[in-house]
Amino acid sequence: MQYDVIVIGSGPGGYVAAIRSAQLGLKTAIIEKYSVLGGTCLNVGCIPSKALLDSSEHFYNAQHSFAEHGIELENLKANLSQMITRKKGVIEKMNNGIAFLMKKNKITVYNGLGSFVDKNTVNVAKLDGTAEQITGKNIIIATGSKPTVLPFIPVDKKRVITSTEALNLQEIPKHLIVIGAGVIGAELGSVYARLGAKVSFVEFADSMIPTMDKTMGKELQKSIKKLGADFYLSHKVTGVVNNGDDVTVTAKNSKDEDVTITGDYVLVCIGRRPYTDGLNLEAAGLATDQRGKLEVDEHTLQTKVGGIYAIGDVIRGAMLAHKAEEEGVFVAETIAGQKPHINYNLIPGVVYTWPEVASVGQTEEELKAAGRAYKAGSFPFKALGRATASMDTDGLVKVLADKATDEILGVHIIGARAADMIAEAVVAMEYRASAEDISRMSHAHPTYTEAIKEACLAATENRALHA
Ligand code: FAD
Ligand code: NAI
Fold first, then answer.
1. Are strands 108-118 and 145-147 parallel, antiparallel or unpaired?
2. Deepest in the core among 34, 67, 69, 326, taking most CB within 10 A?
3. ipTM above 0.95?
4. Ligand sitting nearest the alpha carbon of 313
5. 445 carries an active-site annotation
């Protein structure tokens, strides 16, 4: 065999799997159909969205809170094209970073579409028009996902767009209608609302980010409302008509009445689907399930064909970059004969709005549904010295702990820097800490993390000190 490991797809799952395989002494190749490495996350996902979230947040703060801080500006204006240029620079830097890491680890990179010839052979249809067949003892499928589209929503990528186009708009929409108030809707809706667009969210469920703890969605909606956004919750979209310069969305509300909303752009973000197009899975003896996912064995992430593994968005579980990375490391170590472990219950979920939302473990709704006896402790950001100093007082920390043992079962944060704060909860829960354990640990003052300690105190015996 030419290679010990061939990885198809260079997103956070694939490129990390390749690095870990190479570190373990396996001769490794990676195939990427585009000319740049990094996948969805780096090129049209995590990184560009965060770059625009940061730029738009600076603009919004300059407009709304700098004066109170004593910083006076005149003629403030949002230059979207510069924001997009900066975002492109960030991506390029990181594309080069991954290319460097491939070189450093002696991983062979093939730029072209990978498709199976048989279970050990992959054809690479290269970008220069030539083709090459390579063989591997092990193959890792890390081909990721693409936006879900519905047949009655005509996505023309100009006025009716997905997240990919929303990261490259030429103008700030006057009225952006966001179909789906999940993670992408909340993040990219925030970007354009902060830049001055009217944003309307049309969401099937009765809250924003409905898969997270309900308190988070409720609080987030309050914060995003302050940006001037409108919400059409419990509304099912039934049609989208693109008139060229404007677009009309029709939805049915909970009373079964038709509601129409007209804007100049519609962002469709109703989830993502696993992507296996062009892989020629049948040649390897593989097929996807009804939802387009590749099925894998829980203990090895191996598909039903020996030596072929799958990771990341193309398999079950959360569609998150850090989940894909963990699986990349897991499979490389499994191939090398090790016995790695992933604790799926402790993969945090973060929404990079402002305030940020971050969550790990079980939600209150899940605990109720499971009939688990639990106690909850909450602490509001407005009672924190640090939050008052920075004027970031929206939000709260909610800690859920087992009623009898006090073991922490879930931590849900909405507030400034929640994305970074959630790491404390992950560590605590990995070591099976109780709420009292955390409440007895010193947290620097003044920091946002004091809200976690206070919420743990509240969960222990209602002993919060500052509430
Ligand atoms: P991908 O990153 O999708 O990579 C798959 C790669 O495989 C692609 O480069 C593709 O071109 C390549 N490929 C596919 N088929 C072939 C083939 N046949 N041959 C060769 N190459 C092929 N997650 C987070 O954790 N945090 C975030 O902040 C975050 N923000 C996001 C924002 C947006 C707007 C979007 C859309 C997603 C975001 N995500 C975020 C999700 C994250 O991007 C994905 O979970 C992650 O990229 C999945 O990694 P992956 O390696 O499985 O696949
Ligand atoms: P999502 O699953 O987060 O949200 C989709 C929303 O659309 C849901 O709230 C759903 O109820 C709603 N919906 C579905 N069909 C609808 C319809 N017909 N009419 C109205 N509403 C409808 O999916 P999203 O936002 O597209 O993101 C895809 C994935 O990308 C996420 O699941 C997440 O894993 C990943 N992602 C992660 C980010 C992060 O970690 N910060 C950021 C962005 C994306």
1. unpaired
2. 326
3. yes
4. 1
5. yes
